[in-house]
């Protein structure tokens, strides 16, 4: 296969010795069918073993390898190098603290994820002997798309609200909470809607829609946030006129 | 030494580890359960499983049929007591996952849908489109967040089991983020950290699958069982090795050679009328034979055959196989709605692993294992597709509970002795960081891959297996002269990769030595020089123990039951 050279300008930061992030340039012979990640792995294996980046599945499902490529959030095992020019800039995901080189801090996100109670809540847990729930294909369709999130963090990196308000629980966590709210097996809507009415959640969203544009799995978190806002308000209004029960 | 104390330490946060953690956390809300993973749990390789999880669900199916399919698939090397238990628990475990929110695909009446899979005699594979591992992993991870007694250690790489007084008492673990080795004490340790496909150059496995758990146990004198049985999945994308699920054939896809011929129906490859739904070992061999007969299709990454789904229509592909389409388009350059997908056999799964009993207990008191890292002898010489996700649940749960019982019945560790071991381990890891030496890591990894593919591929013979035995032993020696560049203590992935390479070399040796010893063809171990199965001399499990100059082998009997070995023909 024909070989072409590209220049990669990669953000480096080692807290053991660097005061601030710096940039390092690498020349890489690239193959026409390479993804962005292939170039990083080439650098790591053949040029500079000290470059740190996360990756694993290289098939766009484990969510490890999100980075900024030419200033835009990218799942680097998914995006083809041929879509970029001769010089490619690679930086850690925006809106996250840098741990090292292209590795960012995710602890905050995991707390946000947990805060939306991302599991089936029921007044009374279904017994094993009762077998599976009946759920029609149409009921599955109600939430299926919102269950595709791979936690790659691209949406947080693109979100202008996260940039200004780091406490905002963000698109992926809201989409996941909404996914459970829309699941016919779940009875936790009221609990989650109360969370969604709290500070730094759905009503912090400014409708920028950037999250849905960068989502590599077409989860459409912006749609989830909008639906969640509506449901949280309806839930609050109906709270005045009716006693809550499971659906 | 930073020291923490728990009742149970689970190493690995994939399906088996999470299931074990939840089982133990529910059983005893007072028990402290550590879940240690070198990645965040949702990155675990379970995420890449696609096609489904097997459990009897339909009226035309029964447990005996599932058991017999599994026994036959294993080429009679599976332990029948384990298999009987597995098939009985399987429907309960998949139902539990349903209660926990797993978005299983549905029939029109709202019941869970099932699909056909290789070697299964009826439709018993539960699925969530073709993203089953992803959905199972995320459902389990999210469910685990409910339990405050599950204490996660994310991005912490276990490098040594702490063994004192003849029992395991915890692990030494490198905090990847901080660079320090810490001591995580536990009254029992459960390994649930998966297989080691990355030992081979062409694999469906993600970068993290480096046989770590097998190496940890092996180095403490625990046997690795049936390591010669390495599963080649018939359909990986050339070049990358990315998996195209068996569900593509389960939904009706055809394999075709360069002449457009459905060779599994026109030639005798032993799969009979099952055709594309034969077991993986046989279909992989059929593809290699087609290529060797000159009926492969030439491509930039070697010869391949075509997986043709075009006759299924866009609707079926979009609805049931959306990920196959996405992967084919992104990484295979083909839209399966209109074009065949190029595929070739690819290393996918290890039937072998840490030798454990039906409780997941190893011979080392306090050490348990479940999932791909373990060999509980469910899969024998060849695993049936969609049995392994269910295996993670069934034996994850059982082993988690058994390990918890052990933990509660054992005395506390001698902490000073454990800390000394952890200090020594810390020194070993520190010495490896940025170590000066003459050998390059990428080069050793490449050579390991080449020799494993040559000696332990789909087809094997004595001379090449022995060459691989020598080559892997030589790599073990050269590893000591490894040269590294990264001296940083923070997120040093080169150091992690070096530790992983050490693990892979150890486990590769057990594969090669076990393979060279088994002078018969059974399941995934197919020899060109001894083509027949030999129950007279080889109906036993191979045990590989760490010896001074490499693995030494022993035998363990197979547990038969209702079914006596017979010729395996479909």
Describe this structure in words.
The complex is a heterodimer of chains A (247) and B (570). Chain A contains nine helices and seven strands; from the N terminus they run E-E-H-E-E-E-E-E-H-H-H-H-H-H-H-H. Chain A has helices spanning 36-47, 107-115, 137-144, 154-158, 160-164, 170-181, 189-196, 210-214, 221-241, and strands spanning 4-12, 22-30, 66-69, 72-75, 87-91, 98-100, 103-104. A five-stranded mixed beta sheet of chain A has the order 2-1-5-3-4. In chain A, strands 6-7 form a two-stranded antiparallel sheet. Chain B has 570 residues and is of the alpha/beta class. Helices cover 37% and strands 20% of the residues of chain B. Chain B has helices at 15-27, 63-73, 80-99, 132-144, 212-219, 247-250, 263-266, 280-295, 313-320, 322-331, 387-408, 415-432, 441-455, 462-479, 493-517, 535-538, and strands at 3-11, 33-36, 53-54, 114-115, 125-126, 150-153, 156-164, 167-175, 181-191, 224-225, 230-236, 254-256, 297-299, 302-308, 341-350, 353-355, 367-369, 374-375, 459-460, 526-527, 540-547, 550-557. In chain B, the strands form five sheets. In chain B, strands 1, 2, 6, 7, 8, 9 and 17 form a seven-stranded mixed beta sheet that branches. In chain B, strands 18-16-10-21-22 form a five-stranded mixed beta sheet. In chain B, strands 11, 12, 13, 14 and 15 form a five-stranded antiparallel beta sheet that branches. In chain B, helix 2 packs across helix 3 (80-99). The longest helix of chain B has 25 residues, at 493-517. The radius of gyration of chain B is 22 Å and the shape is globular. The termini of chain B are far apart. Classes of the chains: A alpha+beta (247), B alpha/beta (570). At the A-B interface, helix 1, helix 2 and helix 3 of A face helix 3, helix 4 and helix 10 of B.
């Amino acid at each position: 296969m024909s070989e072409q050279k590209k220049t990669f300008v990669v953000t480096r930061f080692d807290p053991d010795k660097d005061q601030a992030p710096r940039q390092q340039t690498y020349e890489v012979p690239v193959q026409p069918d390479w993804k962005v990640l292939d170039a990083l792995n080439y650098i790591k294996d053949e040029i500079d073993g000290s470059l740190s980046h996360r990756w694993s599945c290289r098939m766009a499902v484990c969510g490890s390898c999100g980075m900024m490529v030419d200033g835009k959030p990218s799942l680097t095992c998914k995006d083809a190098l041929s879509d970029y020019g001769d010089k490619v800039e690679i930086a850690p995901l925006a809106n996250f603290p840098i741990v090292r080189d292209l590795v960012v801090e995710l602890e905050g996100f995991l707390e946000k994820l947990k805060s939306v109670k991302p599991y089936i809540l029921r007044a009374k847990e279904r017994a094993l002997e009762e077998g599976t729930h009946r759920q029609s294909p149409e009921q599955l369709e109600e939430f299926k798309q919102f269950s595709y999130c791979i936690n790659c963090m691209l949406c947080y990196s693109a979100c202008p609200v996260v940039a200004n308000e780091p406490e905002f629980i963000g698109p992926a966590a809201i989409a996941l909470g909404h996914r459970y709210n829309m699941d016919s097996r779940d009875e936790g809507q009221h609990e989650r809607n109360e969370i969604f009415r709290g500070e730094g959640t759905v009503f912090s969203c400014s409708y920028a829609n950037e999250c849905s544009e960068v989502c590599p799995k077409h989860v459409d978190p912006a749609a989830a946030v909008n639906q969640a806002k509506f449901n949280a308000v309806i839930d609050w209004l109906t709270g005045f006129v009716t006693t809550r029960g499971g659906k | 030494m930073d020291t923490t104390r728990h009742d149970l330490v689970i190493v690995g946060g994939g399906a088996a580890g999470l299931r074990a953690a939840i089982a133990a956390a529910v059983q005893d809300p007072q028990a402290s359960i550590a879940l240690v993973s070198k990645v965040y749990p949702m990155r675990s390789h379970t995420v890449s499983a696609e096609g489904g999880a097997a459990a009897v669900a339909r009226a035309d199916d029964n447990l005996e049929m599932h058991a017999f399919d599994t026994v036959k698939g294993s080429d009679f090397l599976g332990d029948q007591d384990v298999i009987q238990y597995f098939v009985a628990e399987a429907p309960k475990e998949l139902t539990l996952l349903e209660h926990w929110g797993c978005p299983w695909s549905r029939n029109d009446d709202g019941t869970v849908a099932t699909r056909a899979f290789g070697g299964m005699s009826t439709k018993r594979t539960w699925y969530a489109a073709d993203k089953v591992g992803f959905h199972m992993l995320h459902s389990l991870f999210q469910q685990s967040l409910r339990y405050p007694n599950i204490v996660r250690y994310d991005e912490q790489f276990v490098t040594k089991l702490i063994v004192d007084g003849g029992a395991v008492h915890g692990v030494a673990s490198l905090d990847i983020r901080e660079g320090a080795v810490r001591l995580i004490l536990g009254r029992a340790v459960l390994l649930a950290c998966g297989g080691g496909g990355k030992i081979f150059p062409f694999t469906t496995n993600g970068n993290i699958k480096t046989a770590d758990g097998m190496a940890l146990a092996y180095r403490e004198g625990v046997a690795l069982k049936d390591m010669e049985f390495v599963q080649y999945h018939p359909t990986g994308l050339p070049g990358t090795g990315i998996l195209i699920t068996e569900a593509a054939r389960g939904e009706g896809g055809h394999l075709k050679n360069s002449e457009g011929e459905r060779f599994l129906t026109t030639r005798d490859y032993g799969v009979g009328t099952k055709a594309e739904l034969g077991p993986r070992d046989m279909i992989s061999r059929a593809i290699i034979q087609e290529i060797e007969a000159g009926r492969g299709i030439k491509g930039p990454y070697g010869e391949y055959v075509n997986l043709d789904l075009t006759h299924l229509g866009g609707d079926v592909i979009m609805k049931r196989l959306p990920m196959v389409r996405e992967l084919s388009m992104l990484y295979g350059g083909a839209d399966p709605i209109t074009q065949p997908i190029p595929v070739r056999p690819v290393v996918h799964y290890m039937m072998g692993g840490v030798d454990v009993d039906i409780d997941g207990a190893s011979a080392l008191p306090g050490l348990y294992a479940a999932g791909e890292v373990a060999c509980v002898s469910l899969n024998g010489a060849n695993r049936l597709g969609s049995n392994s996700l269910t295996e993670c649940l069934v034996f994850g749960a059982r082993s988690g509970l058994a390990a918890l019982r052990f933990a509660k019945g054992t005395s506390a560790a001698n902490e000073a002795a454990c800390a000394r071991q952890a200090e020594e381990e810390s020194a070993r890891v520190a010495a490896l960081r940025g170590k000066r030496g003459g050998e390059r890591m990428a080069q050793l990894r490449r050579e390991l891959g080449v020799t494993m593919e040559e000696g332990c591929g789909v087809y094997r013979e004595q001379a090449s297996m022995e060459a691989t035995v020598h080559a892997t032993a030589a790599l073990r020696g050269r590893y000591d002269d490894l040269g590294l560049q990264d001296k940083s203590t923070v997120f040093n992935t080169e150091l992690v990769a070096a530790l992983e390479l050490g693990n892979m070399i150890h486990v590769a040796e057990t594969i090669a030595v076990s393979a060279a010893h088994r002078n018969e063809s059974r399941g995934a171990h197919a020899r060109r020089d001894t083509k027949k199965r030999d129950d007279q001399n080889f109906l036993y499990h191979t045990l590989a123990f760490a010896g001074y100059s490499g693995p030494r082998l022993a035998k363990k009997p197979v547990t038969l039951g209702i079914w006596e070995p017979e010729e395996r023909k479909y």
